[in-house]
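Hey, quick one: can you model this chain's 3D structure?
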Amino acid sequence: MNIMVIAAHPNLKQSRANKAFTQELASHASSNIYIRDLYQTYPNWQIDVEKEQQLLLTHDRIVFQFPFYWYSSPPLLKKWFDDVFTYGWAFGTGGDHLKDKSFLVATTVGGPENGYRAGGDNWFTVDELLRPIQRTITRCNGVFLPAFVTYNADRGTDAYISQEARRYAAYIQSELKVLVH
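Sure thing. Here's the predicted structure for all 181 residues.
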């Protein structure tokens, strides 16, 4: 399975968790994981739509890796969705290029898991807050897989972040039947 990870962190080099995640994936050099730093690739925010669409076609699973920003993704990833998932290509008449392709969100949040639930500080679960991305994928006839979430990313010890990075690498490479019950 060919996996493309789109890392969308505005400053990946300064990140603890997201940087650890991409470093862990890079250590799997023999695997079929292709990592793209969206902010490094497009510092001027001028997305090469055709290139991105071609990359999507050549990968079986696409992972969107990002820190949770105001209950959503960082702005360049939102722009990426707007620019790349075009009518006639990703959805609508003739828009079947993403049909049955699997997508997965991997996100890091600063708060504890119990803050993301009914009655918690954030009122909703991360899965509930990811519904717009889920619907974007399903509108394009893609398969939205269960998200990978690391809580307490800002306060976690180095050992915790390393453990989460290993768990993340294993998770995104899992077979579909393991991720979907």
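One thing worth noting: The chain has a mean pLDDT of 89.
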